[in-house]
Write the structure tokens for this entry.
Amino acid sequence: MAGSQGATRKYKVWMRHRYHSCCRRLVELLAHPSFQVKELALSTLMKFVQLEGAHPLEKPRWEGSYLFPRELFKAVVRGLLSPEEDQHLLLSQFREYLDHDDLRYHTMQAAADAVARATDGHPEVPPAFWDNTFTLLSSVSLPHRDCAVSSFYVKRTEPSDKWKVAHLKEHRKAFQAMWLGFLKHKKVLMILHDSILPHLAQPTLMIDFLTSAYDVGGAISLLALNGLFVLIHQHNLEYPDFYRKLYGLLDPSVFHVKYRARFFHLVDLFLSSSHLPAYLVAAFVKRLARLALTAPPEALLLVLPLICNLLRRHPACRVLVHRPHSPELDADPYDPGEEDPAKSRALESSLWELQALQQHYHPEVSKAAGVINQALSAPEVSIAPLLELTAFELFERDLRKGPASVPLEFVPAQGLLGRQDSLCTQLFTLC
């Protein structure tokens, strides 16, 4: 009898080794050149996760305890976050599993573990790993209510309140830990304001990260300010230098950066409040107008309506247009080199730049600049269609218009030598 039990135990140990060997081989197949093989390997591994969760290899410590095959699932996630190849297509297949609350919870934990492993002692992490990780993390979205945490991939007879996976606050903690581990990668800033901050248990933990990200400069500063704006308006963050930093981002390069459309969309959003002081809005209007003097036409068709919208929102700034004795160019009190908008003396100046742009070589630009000479209509002009306008599109639009009909004579010709009653015609007839 004892020999029979020993043989059974040895057989179970042998079978367990074979099972683990099979799982390792399936994880390796997640990097197979054929996508069909990858897809089959993923679906098989996820079936193993489900079955191993329902029939755990280890006995539970107490009745009703929650067991999940964490090690197997971590291996699956590490295979998806390959540092060597793009796994976007396979990750899109994996996304359907994230509808289950238990898989989503453990995905967040496994992703945080994978990022910690990749960055521990490795200053240079391959870009493919960051791209795959960002794709996976940005696919995770949390429910808004506790009662929504009820869909489990690993079947259980009766969920228990003692399980962390059954509580939304634990999901939020895992979500926060996952993203905090990934914050060294700049792509996170693109979705931070609407996909990450609303789900963090303590959004104010992001203050130091966002202020440090702003110091990087360029597009990173812009995206960091977007997150700070959310913290100011929704979490009562005191950040008095916000508009000063935004003002500092306005330089000639903003018309040529990759994130130009996003930049001006955010500028329009940040200056949408009617409670902003007139001197601050006037400084932004004046800075935009000064930059417009050297901007390309496609950018001017965006900036000029934005300036007019700011004047519509803040009537106190219309003095820049209606000042009867505006200063001359060489006596403009506005200081473009001043970093503090409160000290720029913009309200003492005028928008002579728009008058200069009314003589622009491009007819649409001169027309847009001429709007300032008329009474501004109450409704604002939407700048959304203009955000993505490029020089190529502007050129193509001009070509589609075709040549304009330009009269060369005030008196239309009626014959080869002129009208029938002309002196030249009569002399030719007599000859």
